[in-house]
Task: structure prediction
Amino acid sequence: MLSTLNYPAIKSLTIDRYARVLSTSVTVPETVVTNDDIIKRYDLIATDRAVQFAVGIKERRYADDHTLVSDLLAETALVCLDRANVRPEQLDRIIYTKLMGDYIVPATSIKVLQKLGMRSGIPAFDIAAACSGFAHILDMAIRYIDSGDDYVLILGGDISSRSANTKNKKDTRTIFLSGDAVVGMLLGVSDEQHFLASYLYTDNTYYEYSYIPFGTEMLNKTKAFDNTMFNMQMPDGMVVHESVIDSCDIVANKLLQHTGLSIDDIDVFITSDQTTMTWEAQLRKMGVPREKSASLFHKYGNTVAALAPVNLNEMIESGRLQRGMTVMFLAHGAGASGGGFIFTY
Amino acid sequence: MLSTLNYPAIKSLTIDRYARVLSTSVTVPETVVTNDDIIKRYDLIATDRAVQFAVGIKERRYADDHTLVSDLLAETALVCLDRANVRPEQLDRIIYTKLMGDYIVPATSIKVLQKLGMRSGIPAFDIAAACSGFAHILDMAIRYIDSGDDYVLILGGDISSRSANTKNKKDTRTIFLSGDAVVGMLLGVSDEQHFLASYLYTDNTYYEYSYIPFGTEMLNKTKAFDNTMFNMQMPDGMVVHESVIDSCDIVANKLLQHTGLSIDDIDVFITSDQTTMTWEAQLRKMGVPREKSASLFHKYGNTVAALAPVNLNEMIESGRLQRGMTVMFLAHGAGASGGGFIFTY
Result:
């Protein structure tokens, strides 16, 4: 383990208004892009079989030229609300965790309110926290409900194929990875405690191990702008892979210790799967059998903040996650930053 | 008033662990840039006197080429902690409200942790919400403290001269406006209630009235990138000005009604001052005398999320805001998005 930082102690939440997950949703663009499509488009020396073997991905979705992130988010928001039989007007707040979003300013979540035709000016803002973003906004939603909200809609994911994907065709390590997807989760107030533990951390040791360098520094220095500035840089993928496994272990054990549960008490284990290998390594590390988990990386690729919730939604839609079951939900990402929860669905 | 949206009702916070403001800080770059400096640099047809008359600005600060936002943020964080006699290791969380930040990913707040030499991996993330961002993260900090945190450091502002400022010299309406500044505010747990009311809203009617259009849409369409993509677009400044005044009135009255206070009970009135005219119009609208407020717009320009807290810090540093006094703190910005608080300092 590269890091020598201390992970902070897990704290009890002083909560008297409980939150529960009412519904989830996933929205992906229609266009399926195969490995062969990418190989042909960029004239790469690679084969579909080699790509599948190396990272586990078979295909991913790319949004068409006219689709905005806010279009996908508004669509998934409506599905999510409909599944819980909640009207947009009942919402107290929308929080969106983005990679780039529609614009830098204003928040894309405000555009979502507009597309939902909302007549009430409820609070909405975006946060920027990469693959772990959904853990941050889920933690936030619990606390907003504790302090007075009744319904909080949280949204994640992006059209990251346009930014995170390298346009430098020589970098065959990253060009296959990104896909477009967005997710929604509606949380509502509940009489019973569902979230048994919540934990978030950052580890700045890994700050330069996966990053998109565009920002105020680059604006100052650069005269020639191009798309590659918005590509995810990953100088050593193995270090990132190992840091995810280490963090998974540390966070999972803090959550288990805090709740007094063992890993065998967990019915469904959800985590961010930046590659199929990363997903499988986390299952092995925690001794979780495959049937208790899901990974759609092979189908959707790296969907950034949507990774873990896409897998949660899959467990719900497939009927493998039933009400009353105990879920461990983890997310790790660039920063490094991550966290997790144990909750009763 | 252009908008026909309903502002949501103000809700009581169900809070049992109270927050208070322990300290504030402001950090600005050393380099002072006058109106004449900008007129000369861009060879503009304008005079210092005309600029001062039109928007009220005399000078602003620009960071030098080698300064990162995270440098300024780490500096202000240390000042803020020092003023409250709190060590970095005591912090539970850092939240930063950015315009662009150092990078798109990871969060700049994680870089701040690194620069503080933090040995503990506490949670940290960035939010993106323009000039109202500080209201969002202040509301968040109150709720994090309610649900268990002891110390939350919130940071705002950016090196926005590099992005928001137009590089198109013909647009003399916006080139004088932006300045660089960052702010910090440390909140801690308290036995007594200090925050009497909190209110946030968005108004998507104004979504296209002030924006920085760069995002996933532009990444797709654009072949030729340049600095101007990151410039603040404001098609009708008067509409924005009027929406700020309207929002100020609505939010202030909701806060007063909720607390049962009148505007005369407010000892210090703080708001975002996108121009001197905008500040003065808010004072007039609310019937607040100038001596109860502060505006440093003439000195620092539009510092985005730092606008309102820069003015709060000025009232504290000048001794005009004393412990026990009642503060109304408002912030409005692009989105539109905004909100406010009544708190006892």
Observations:
- Residues 283 and 290 of chain A are 7 Å apart (CA to CA).
- Chain A has a mean pLDDT of 92.
